[in-house]
Amino acid sequence: EAQVTQNPRYLITVTGKKLTVTCSQNMNHEYMSWYRQDPGLGLRQIYYSMNVEVTDKGDVPEGYKVSRKEKRNFPLILESPSPNQTSLYFCASSLSLQPYEQYFGPGTRLTVT
Amino acid sequence: QKEVEQDPGPLSVPEGAIVSLNCTYSNSAFQYFMWYRQYSRKGPELLMYTYSSGNKEDGRFTAQVDKSSKYISLFIRDSQPSDSATYLCAMSASGAGSYQLTFGKGTKLSVIP
Question: SS3 of B105, please?
Answer without folding.
Answer: coil
